[in-house]
């Protein structure tokens, strides 16, 4: 038997059904016995949505009103009634089992599954298998229109069915016409048989992509384009940093993701950057996923774009034998441990986790992350056979192992591959540094500070927006912008984050701009404009975040100016003094100097390439993400001419010239100044530097004195 099903939402209708996240408001169904060609009672049920604001198209097509829907039952109750009435009709027809049949796939995949997932109740098994009437019709009548162009009306016209849509209620005509189409397909001339229904996966299958197990990394890299279909991959952007592969699969509920097809993207520091690549089982599923562009995960909207198979393989394709063996156990929950003592052994980790959360395979379920030279990074991945054991492990977050507290996070197979491979390909944390790392020239201006609300924040900018677009957006208010007052906020990959800050000439001007431009359109997006202070602006530019609860501290203690790399150097450019103090490379690890050599040494300055210093300077803000082990520190070497030019400038060196610096890594988080001085007892250090260990401004000192790393003179 078939249960012919039709539905409508409070928003878009037809080919865009479900694309606007609007809730279901109507279900109409009827049981059809394919053998006896009898039908059951036709049922029509209204559904009470949480939001009864109906779109104009919905009102026009369906004739429904908010007043009528307000008296209906909620979706969970309607689905219970659906199951009961279908069972009753089947008994009358003498049948026991059935399969759904709908007009296309949108109602099942794009409406019912996503909505029930968001409302946290389960659909019955019948909604995981269904026949697509459009596909069945095209298989029965190959000369008819393409599947994507089919509608109930076009199928009825092809068969010459004389039905008048205006004579029936909305939904009733659709179901009756679908039943008539099915009976035509069952006639002697066609004898169509419904054999292969569409299926919806019950859950996302975790584990390594099968490609990892069958191809070596070398072969994989040489045949990327042949391995993954470019028409099956999407890129999701704007994900919360704590999102797991299961969270992403839930966002795409109703669509079939390939096994191991969720790859969370990491930045160069190993942190999640808010993006993921998702591989679906077919191009049809990928196209449906693209319709979920700007759908919500919690309170955040997620952007969905096309991606390529090559991009997917760069994130999820390459692996080592060690990782492949670790990930070969299927349906495992992966937990990432961070902050392990460098001397920690497998026995130490197993003892830390305890008997309440046994590791799958014992020692075989542990994977320590190491640098190419064999040094441990302090990270490890652990396999658990079920969610209960993983939850018990997560309860040990920030418990002590040895003398250090351990952080635990959920992880994915793709993240294991990325972290291990990136560590393998990376250089040691403190390599031999290039020649003196350059320069800071005194600036003619500085970034605003203080609590005066003379700045505005632009949020939601198109990613293609540039300075000119912002100035056009500001309109007449452009004349009230301070010189060098537009600051684009980039993410850690150097791409626009959608935010910008603008310094206005006064708080009144900032208020007027916020009132005039808030939610004004730029290209195809509306932009939110908020008044803020220079202090808040600086906080975000240095890596912090602004949210409804106030300021959130920067997730990384060492933010960096963008862009990170340049093809060639020109004349040195001017950057703000405070920013220069924060990014003094010499403050990290300078070359050893002697008092005799310091007299002839060029002055300590910070260099910034001219081509990056446009009229408005760009800064990088980090995405919030789980902390990870530190990675390679990058530097920009100055051309000799820039150092010579900087040496002639008048300035005050930030660091004293005599002596040498050492960098301490791996300190306990509760280490204070006294413990560090005690550690160096017996060695001569500069007696004037007790208060901070390094002579920098308070702002620079607070950035450099991270909990695990100190720079000592």
From TrEMBL:
Q: Where in the cell is it found?
A: Nucleus
Q: Does the keyword RNA-binding apply?
A: yes
Keyword RNA-binding attributed: yes
Q: Which UniProt keywords apply?
A: mRNA processing, mRNA splicing, Nucleus, Repeat, RNA-binding
Please name the GO terms of the biological process aspect recorded for this protein, alphabetically: mRNA processing; RNA splicing
Q: Please classify the protein's predominant subcellular localization into one broad category.
A: nucleus
**Do you know which PROSITE patterns this protein is assigned to?**
RRM
Q: Show the InterPro entries listed in the entry.
A: ESRP, Nucleotide-bd_a/b_plait_sf, RBD_domain_sf, RNaseH-like_sf, RNaseH_sf, RRM_dom
One of the entry's Gene Ontology molecular-function terms is:
RNA binding
What superkingdom heads the lineage? Eukaryota
Question: Which intervals hold domain RRM?
Answer: 333-413
One GO cellular component from the entry?
nucleus
Q: Which family does it belong to?
A: Belongs to the ESRP family.
Q: What is this protein called?
A: Epithelial splicing regulatory protein 2
């Amino acid at each position: 038997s078939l249960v012919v099903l039709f539905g409508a939402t409070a928003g878009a209708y037809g080919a865009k059904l479900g694309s606007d996240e609007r809730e279901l408001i109507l279900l109409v169904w009827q049981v059809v016995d394919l053998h006896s060609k009898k039908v059951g009672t036709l049922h029509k049920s209204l559904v009470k949505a949480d939001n009864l604001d109906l779109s104009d198209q919905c009102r026009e097509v369906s004739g429904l009103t908010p007043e009528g829907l307000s008296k209906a039952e909620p979706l969970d109750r309607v689905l219970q009634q659906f199951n009961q009435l279908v069972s009753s009709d089947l008994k009358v027809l003498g049948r026991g089992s059935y399969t759904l049949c709908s007009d296309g796939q949108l109602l099942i995949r794009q409406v019912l599954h996503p909505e029930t997932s968001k409302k946290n109740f389960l659909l019955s098994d019948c909604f995981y298998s269904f026949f697509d009437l459009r596909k069945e019709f095209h298989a029965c009548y190959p000369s008819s229109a393409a599947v994507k162009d089919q509608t109930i009306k076009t199928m009825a016209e092809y068969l010459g069915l004389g039905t008048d849509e205006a004579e029936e209620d909305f939904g009733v005509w659709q179901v009756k016409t679908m039943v008539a189409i099915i009976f035509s397909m069952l006639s002697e001339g066609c004898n169509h048989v419904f054999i292969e229904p569409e299926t919806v996966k019950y859950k996302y299958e975790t584990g390594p992509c099968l490609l990892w197990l069958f191809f070596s990394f070398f072969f994989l890299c040489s045949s990327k384009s042949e391995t993954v279909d470019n028409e099956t991959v999407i890129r999701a952007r704007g994900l919360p940093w704590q999102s797991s592969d299961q969270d992403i699969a839930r966002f795409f509920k109703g669509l079939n993701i390939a096994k191991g097809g969720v790859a969370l993207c990491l930045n160069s520091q190993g942190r999640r950057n808010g993006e993921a690549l998702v591989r679906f089982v077919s191009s049809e599923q990928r196209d449906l996923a693209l319709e979920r562009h700007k759908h919500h995960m919690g309170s955040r909207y997620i952007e969905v774009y096309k991606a390529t198979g090559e991009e997917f393989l760069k994130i999820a394709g390459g692996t080592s034998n060690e990782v492949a063996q670790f990930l070969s156990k299927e349906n495992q929950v992966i937990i990432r441990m961070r902050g392990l003592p460098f001397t920690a052994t497998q026995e130490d980790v197993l003892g830390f986790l305890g008997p309440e959360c046994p590791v799958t395979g014992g020692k075989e379920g542990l994977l320590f992350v190491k640098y190419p030279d064999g040094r441990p990074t302090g990270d490890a991945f652990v396999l658990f056979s079920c969610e209960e054991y993983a939850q018990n492990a997560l309860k040990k977050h920030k418990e002590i192992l040895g003398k250090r507290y351990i952080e635990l996070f959920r992880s994915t197979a793709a993240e294991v591959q990325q972290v291990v491979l990136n560590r393998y390909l990376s250089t040691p944390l403190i390599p031999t540094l290039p020649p003196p790392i350059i320069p800071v020239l005194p600036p003619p201006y500085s970034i605003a500070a203080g609590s005066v609300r003379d700045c505005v924040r632009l949020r939601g900018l198109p990613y293609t927006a540039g300075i000119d677009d912002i100035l056009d957006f500001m309109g007449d208010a452009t004349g009230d912008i301070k010189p060098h007052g537009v600051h684009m906020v980039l993410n850690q990959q150097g791409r626009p984050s959608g935010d910008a800050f603008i310094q206005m000439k006064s708080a009144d001007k900032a208020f007027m701009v916020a009132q005039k431009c808030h939610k004004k359109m730029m290209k195809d997006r509306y932009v939110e404009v908020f008044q803020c202070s220079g202090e808040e602006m600086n906080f975000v530019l240095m890596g912090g975040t602004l949210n409804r609860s106030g300021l959130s501290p920067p997730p990384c203690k060492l933010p960096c100016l963008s862009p990170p790399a340049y093809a060639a150097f020109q004349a040195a450019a001017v950057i703000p003094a405070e920013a220069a103090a924060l990014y003094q490379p010499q403050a990290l690890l300078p070359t050893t100097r002697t008092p005799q050599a310091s007299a002839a040494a060029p002055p300590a300055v910070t260099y910034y390439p001219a081509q990056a210093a446009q009229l408005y300077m760009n800064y990088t803000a980090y995405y919030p993400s789980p902390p990870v082990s530190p990675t390679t520190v990058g530097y920009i070497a100055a051309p000799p001419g820039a150092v010579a030019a900087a040496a002639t400038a008048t300035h005050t060196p930030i660091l004293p010239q005599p002596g040498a610096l050492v960098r301490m890594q791996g300190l306990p988080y509760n280490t204070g100044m006294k413990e560090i001085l005690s550690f160096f007892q017996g060695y001569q250090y500069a007696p004037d530097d007790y208060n901070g260990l390094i002579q920098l401004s308070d702002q620079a000192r607070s950035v450099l004195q991270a909990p695990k790393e100190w720079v000592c003179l």
